[in-house]
Amino acid sequence: MRIVVILLLLLILLSLGSALTFLFRDRGKGTERTVRALTFRVGLSIGLFLLLMIGYGTGLIQTRL
Asked: What is the mean pLDDT of residues 46-57?
C-alpha cells in the first residue's frame, strides 16, 4: 500500500511538472496540453484520496497513537 501511495504522489508531481513545461513552451498560444496535464493531476489526486479513504476504512491503513 505504501509503494502505491508513493508512486501516485510521484505521478502527481510529474504531471504538475509537465503542465508547467507545457505552459512555458506554448507561451499561452495553445493551452490544451496544459489543461490535459492538470486534469490528469486532479484525477490522480482524487484517486489517491479515495485509495487512502478505502484503505483506512478497510483497515489496511492504521493510525498510530
From this structure: 96
Q: Is residue 8 situated within a structural domain?
A: yes
Q: Tell me how far apart the alpha carbons of residues 20 and 35 are, in angstroms, rounded to a whole number.
A: 10
Cα distance between residue 20 and residue 1, in whole Å:
29
3 band by pLDDT with thresholds 50, 70 and 90 = very high
Q: How many CB atoms lie within 10 A of CB 34?
A: 19
Contact (CB, 8 A) for 12 and 44: yes
Residue 33 C-alpha cell reads as: 496540453
Provide the domain limits for residue 12.
2-58
